[in-house]
Every structure is written in C-alpha cells, then in structure tokens.
Amino acid sequence: MKTSIVADGPFRFARTVEHQKRRRELAQAIVAKYARQLAEADFFRAIWIRHRMRQELRREWRKMAPSPHSLWFGLLSPRRTQPSPGQHAKDESKRETPAA
Fold first, then answer.
1. What's the CA gap between 73 and 80, in Å, rounded?
2. pTM score, whole prediction
3. Residues ≥6 apart with Cβ < 8 Å to 15
4. CA 59, 64, 67, 72 torsion: positive or negative?
5. Do the beta carbons of residue 61 and residue 23 sit within 8 Å?
6. Stretch 51-73: mean pLDDT, rounded?
7. What is the DSSP letter of 98?
8. By the number of CB atoms within 10 A of the CB, which of 37, 82, 95, 98 ranks highest?
9. pLDDT tens digits, residue range 73-100?
10. pLDDT, tens digit, 9 for 90 and up, residues 11-42
11. What is the gyration radius of the CA atoms in the chain, in angstroms?
12. Which string of DSSP letters, residue by residue, matches 25-79?
C-alpha cells in the first residue's frame, strides 16, 4: 500500500486545480463584497479598503490550509507539534518508579 505522505505535500496541495479554483472564488467574493465601498471611496480610503480586503483574503486562505497538527503539514509548520529532542528525556525522569 502506498503512503500518502510526500515531501512536498503542502506545495502539491496548493497547486491542485480544486484549491486554485477555491482561492479564485474567495477572491472574487471578497472583491464583490467591497466593490460598492471601493467605488465611492476617495484615494486614501480606497487604499484602506484594499488593505482590509487583503487581510480578509489572507484570513480565508489560512482557513483553507490543512491543520498545522496534521501529519504531513505539521513538520513544516512554524509552531512545533512534536516535542523537542530533550523533552522526551525530561518527561521520562519525572515518572515515578514503582517501589519494590
């Protein structure tokens, strides 16, 4: 049986047709949401609205990404999901040994 864990899993995921289609749909929905405000805004207000649009788009794209705790994605996550190398030894020393 072939494993589904690959070295470049997040990059392959980002290149899939379904993922790209969903990203485009989200971008179009956010542009449509702010279109009226953007049309009525002056120059500086338009800059602020575009900034909010980018923030919302990034937030929605992050929701689409696999969980940082998933097996294939967790190793590349900025947050560590596994204990550090010395952590295991520390935990072992805390265990009580049964009295004989």
1. 11
2. 0.57
3. none
4. negative
5. yes
6. 81
7. P
8. 37
9. 545 555 555 555 555 555 555 555 555 5
10. 787 888 988 999 999 999 999 999 999 999 99
11. 22
12. HHHHHHHHHHHHHHHH--HHHHHHHHHHHHHHHHHHHHHHSPPTTSHHHHTTSSS
- Hey, what are 30's tokens? 């956010």
Q: Which residues contact 65 (CB under 8 A, 6 or more apart)?
A: 10, 73
Domain ranges across the chain? 9-94
Two structure tokens written together for 93: 């020393």
Identify the pLDDT of residue 5.
61
pLDDT score recorded for residue 65: 76
Reference 21, options 58, 77, 64, 52; nearest CA is: 64
